[in-house]
Design a protein that fits this description.
Chains A, B: This is DUF917 domain-containing protein. Chains A, B: It comes from Marinactinospora rubrisoli. The structure is a homodimer. The first copy, chain A, is α+β, with helices and mostly antiparallel strands. Chain A folds into two domains: about 1-205, CV3147-like fold (3-Layer(aba) Sandwich), CATH 3.40.1610; about 220-360, CV3147-like (Beta Barrel), CATH 2.40.390. Helix content of chain A is about 30%, strand content about 30%. Chain A has eleven helices and 18 strands. In chain A, strand 11 (about 235-250) and strand 12 form a beta hairpin. In chain A, helix 1 packs across helix 8. The termini of chain A are far apart. The interface of A and B includes residues 85, 159 and 161 of A. Strand 7 (about 160) of chain A pairs antiparallel with strand 7 of chain B.
């Protein structure tokens, strides 16, 4: 598969859905990716089956508060700096890029890096969605070391982290990202082909393209009808009543109230946010929760509204997609379930929650 | 010259004076250095004249808030980690250690590192005193690059900084030090023997030992009489009336009021602090200012009282020593003069200020 002028917009749209509200610069990321493939040619997406066992894969992502990236745009050279620094660190050549997270703008950065370094992108990622913290990644669940990690800013300042676990890396690298003006880009949890075949979420890139194609296809009907083939659910349709959001400690944190409209009139729903949408609550009941993927769409256009863009009065349709299987395991939930974000409730799969609600309504 | 059980206490005492109030862990640093030379043998201090032109010198210091080091003591292994990481970074062996700053506990760290790595210590440093920020160093004044810089904590977490100037390194590495719990140790501004002969403050180690010997010699008379041969001046003798001090952003900041006693009765003097004592003011007039070296001594014992130890009611004698010549130049004052610390007055050498006061009093 190739990512080019035709497929990239679908890919970006699917990544936006999988971003769970994180990644407000996905639109400028798409423009940068389109410019990169226009100038340098399409990016090849390869299956992990075709990656040699010992080939080096570089997972990459941004680190910081996504709202900052609306103004602090990156530098396409960052991919070259990251690759060079990781090759120097490990003493061997890089084989391919991987999105550390397929959600939001972090799906597009490795496309730009790939175009500028001439390396392919593997059809996989470390989350199958987006999460706010460094250790919330499939490679961590599979024991892949977080370091060596390279962090660069848009001006070429380099920092290398060694001998740290993923939690300590999250703590220290985020502090450094704040000092760097709130955002930087990294390679962490680098791994070889053999490890990647078991330690990643496979098929994420093609999955994002497919989601984008399906949602863009108006012949499929309304939002609920388009979501059906990708196992998505509409949680509520409404108007944004209140937005509490602040940038603190390298994160966007807050919550949003949605007032139901039309068939949802009378419902009041709260979305909890830490970079991504983490949980949806109604009258003290959970409608959906991390690790399931909660995304707000513009009710009119079906476009994703990122957490940084949520405003009073917007008409939104809140949707949820099931999390990748690995996050629904005991180990997965310990790392990224609601209690990992200090919520005092357990995880229930969104499809069960939706079925229960339908049952009690009928 | 050797630093051993006999010379180290003098060295530490001299370093404490040159520390300008910074480095409250100098006492525990001395204990650690004594233990290191007892276990591993004395540390050789070599003249820069005996260092080959292309030999690699590693300037080392702590980075963070000195009050934290009273509880967060270091790890003697840190010197081995720093050396190994710098050798890996530069691809050549280290020849000798250097104190980045001769003032306070930072004079003792390279002694411990030297004992544990079997490398000598050069008779020089980067300040001839202590300063609070990374760029306030003679090597910066002489155009030596700040990076590559290695930072390690007491648990062996490694961070390497590349391609940054000294100001940006100060900003980002200090933020990281705060994330590391408020303190870490570094090598920055590494340089070769030929460069070191012009870009450092030479003779600092033997100067610190000499100061320590002179001040310990009670046959020389009172504090003022002991200070005379090292060009030191007593600014005021008094009792501490008030201490405002807080740990913020990786620094100790605040000020102290001293109420004159005996022949100084009726005088009220304020000392301004940022890790070190920066300026002394009386009725709006400057008595002494950075880069001259301002240190508080216990009036009874002559021992240095570090900024972290200042308490209400203490009897102190505030003394000042002239700054090394390089800091009294235009370029030196631009980097470390009072205006570099946002004070709205110019530098006047302490000996001139003292002479003026004597004149107006007579």
């Amino acid at each position: 598969m190739l990512l080019d002028e035709t497929t990239l917009p679908y890919y970006a749209r699917g990544a936006a859905i999988l971003g769970a509200g994180g990644g407000g610069s996905t639109r400028s990321g798409l423009l940068a990716a389109l410019q990169a493939v226009e100038e340098l040619g399409p990016v090849e997406v390869i299956s992990l089956d075709d990656v040699p066992d010992d080939a080096l894969i570089l997972p990459t992502a941004g680190l910081g508060s996504p709202d900052i990236t609306l103004e602090k745009i990156g530098n396409p050279q960052q991919g070259v700096w990251l690759r060079d620094a990781m090759e120097r660190e490990l003493g061997r050549p890089a084989y391919a890029w991987m999105a550390a997270e397929i959600g939001g703008n972090n799906a597009l950065k490795p496309v730009i890096w790939a175009a500028h370094t001439g390396l392919p992108l593997v059809d996989a990622d470390g989350m199958g969605r987006a999460y706010p913290e460094v250790q919330m990644i499939s490679m961590h669940l599979h024991g892949v070391p977080a370091t060596p990690t390279v962090l660069v800013d848009e001006r070429g300042h380099h920092v290398v982290f060694r001998d740290m676990d993923a939690h300590w890396l999250e703590h220290t690298a985020r502090a450094l990202s704040v000092a760097f003006g709130g955002f930087s880009v990294t390679v962490d949890h680098s791994l070889d082909g053999a490890t990647a075949r078991t330690a990643t979420v496979r098929g994420s890139v093609s999955w994002a393209v497919r989601i984008g194609e399906i949602l863009a296809d108006s012949s499929r009907g309304d939002i609920a009808e388009r979501l059906a083939p990708i196992d998505g659910h509409v949680l509520v349709s409404g108007k944004i009543e209140d937005v509490n959001r602040r940038t603190v400690g390298g994160f966007v944190r807050g919550n949003v109230l949605i007032d139901g409209v039309a068939s949802d009139r009378g419902r009041l729903v709260r979305v909890e946010i830490q970079n991504e949408n983490l949980a949806v609550l109604e009258d003290g009941e959970v409608l959906a929760t991390v690790p399931d993927i909660i995304t707000a769409l513009d009710s009119q256009t079906g476009e994703v509204i990122f957490t940084e863009e949520l405003r009073y009065g917007q008409r939104v349709t809140l949707v949820a997609l099931p999390a990748p299987d690995l996050w629904r395991t005991e180990a997965g939930l310990a790392l990224v379930g609601p209690r990992a974000f200090a919520y005092d409730f357990d995880y229930t799969p969104v499809e069960e929650l939706v079925a229960r609600r339908k049952e009690s309504a009928s």
